[in-house]
Amino acid sequence: MTELGVLHSATLGFERFYGPHSGRNIAQSFLRVLDKYKIDTKVGYVTTDNASNNDTALVELGAMLQERNIHFDLITSRVRCFGHIINLVVKGFLWGSDWEAFEANIAYNTDIAKELHLLKSWRKKGPMGKLHNIGIWILRTPQHCDHFSQRVRLARGQEYTGPLISLIGNITRWSRDADALEQAFELRDILDGFVRSAVTEE
Amino acid sequence: MSHLPPSAIEPQGNDQDNPDLVTGDELTRDDWDDLQTIFQILKPFQRLTLQLQGTGTQRNHANGYLARVLPAMDDLLAHLEEAKQAYSDSSIYSSHLLTSINHAWAILDRYVQIHFLLYY
After folding, report:
1. Which residue, A38, A74, B27, B84, could crosslink B31 as a Cys pair with Cβ 3.0–4.6 Å?
2. B120 touches A at CB < 8 Å
3. Is residue A4 within 8 angstroms of chain B, CB to CB?
4. Are B42 and A90 in contact (CB under 8 A)?
5. Which residues 14-43 of A have a C-beta within 8 angstroms of B?
6. Which of A83, A89, A122 has the CB atom closest to B108's CB atom?
């Protein structure tokens, strides 16, 4: 915060991490940075993602600060990364693999075990699964990439500046899945033709 | 990564090894419709991810402030609840869609609860 009350952010540490990513290790590493700048009494809020080792890290940090007689309320001082929450929700929507949602699901009268089985295969061979497989297939060899790009150029003309290959999602950043979808819509006719010819050639 | 066929995560190999990799992966008209629906459900998540991320796109924007995150979580929960209603007719939409929406709702609701206990 400046004299004029303008909020600023600064990177104070970018530490190499040794050993396991345990809560204790994370807390110690964090405390080292605080000590370097002598700001261990000034911790306001801590933002992390929702992984359980971060939960333990804050508990450990609280205990370490307590030993120094510094008060740190780990419940109210924890801020959860919103982007990570969105990521968890969307991944759950697209590829989810834990099933507690079903227990709360009273809208369904069908056999849950059967539904789970069907859902599994839907995710594997449903539209998102298929699109993913096609993306992998295209990126698999340079020949496939070239062949696909040529088809795009041929269909869209030389002036075309849009995507030449089809994206695939990425496990760490869900918005790639949305990007992949957007691109797929744009290249729908070419994707369909490419897969058709790949299957026929086989 | 369970949705990947084992052959797809192989770093190299030639086509003859896996002639069937895309067989069965042809997207039908219904598949494309489902993809459109999935994209419609994802749109608000995409929009809010970009709006609330770190530095934001415009200067002096209070992106990512808790005061903006909390209403955003409520909006997304409401969005999923609307989606539950909108896509509940299994004669029109794949029933898997509703199951997936419920799953997403349950995850989000867990975090809404945590925040509710803390800040309200």
Report:
1. B27
2. no
3. no
4. yes
5. none
6. A89
Residues 88-127 of A with CB under 8 A from B: 88-90, 92-97, 99-102, 104-105, 107-108, 110, 115, 118-119, 122-127
Give B93's contacts (C-beta < 8 A, 6+ positions apart).
Answer: B37, B87
Residue A105 lies in a domain: no
Closest CA to A76 of B55, B120, B48: B120
Interface confidence: ipTM more than 0.90: no
- The structural domains of chain B, with segments of one domain joined by +, span 21-119
Neighbours of A143 (CB within 10 A): 10
Q: How many CB pairs under 8 A join A and B?
A: 169
Asked, for residue A63, whether it belongs to a domain, the answer is yes
Please indicate, yes or no, if residue A99 is contained in any of the structural domains.
Answer: no
Task: Quote the number of domains for chain A.
Answer: 2
* Domain contains A93: no
Distance CA A126, CA A123 (A): 5
Structural domain ending residue among the three candidates A59, A80, A101: A80
Q: Which amino acid is at A186?
A: E
- Are residues A35 and B78 in contact, defined by beta-carbon separation less than 8 angstroms? no
A38-89 pLDDT per residue, tens: 999 999 888 888 888 888 999 999 999 999 999 988 888 888 888 888 888 8
Give this prediction's pTM.
0.74
CB contact under 8 Å between B111 and A80, yes or no, is yes
Instruction: Among A86, A99, A192, pick the best mutation site for testing chain B contact (most B Cβ within 10 A).
Output: A86
CB spacing of A85 vs B108 below 8 angstroms: yes
